Amino acid sequence: MKAKIGDVASRAGVSPTTVSRVLNNRGYISQETKDRVYKAMNELNYFPNDLARSLFNKRTNLIGLIVPSTSNPFFGELSFHIENICASMGYKVMLCNSLNQIDKEESYVNMLMRNQVDGIIAAAHYNREILSYNKQNIAVVAIDRYLSNTIPVVGSDNYAGGKMATELLLSRGCRTIVHINGPLELDTPARLRRNAYEEVMAGYGKQPIIYEVNDLFNQEDQRTTVRRIFDECPEVDGVFASNDLQAASFISEARRRGKSIPNEIKVVGYDGTESALMLLPELTTIRQPIPLIAQSAIDLLIKEIEGQFGDLPHETYLPVELVEGSTA
Amino acid sequence: MKAKIGDVASRAGVSPTTVSRVLNNRGYISQETKDRVYKAMNELNYFPNDLARSLFNKRTNLIGLIVPSTSNPFFGELSFHIENICASMGYKVMLCNSLNQIDKEESYVNMLMRNQVDGIIAAAHYNREILSYNKQNIAVVAIDRYLSNTIPVVGSDNYAGGKMATELLLSRGCRTIVHINGPLELDTPARLRRNAYEEVMAGYGKQPIIYEVNDLFNQEDQRTTVRRIFDECPEVDGVFASNDLQAASFISEARRRGKSIPNEIKVVGYDGTESALMLLPELTTIRQPIPLIAQSAIDLLIKEIEGQFGDLPHETYLPVELVEGSTA
DNA sequence: CTGAAAGCGCTTACAG
DNA sequence: CTGAAAGCGCTTACAG
Question: Is B82 left (phi over 0), alpha (psi -120 to 50) or beta?
Answer without folding.
Answer: alpha
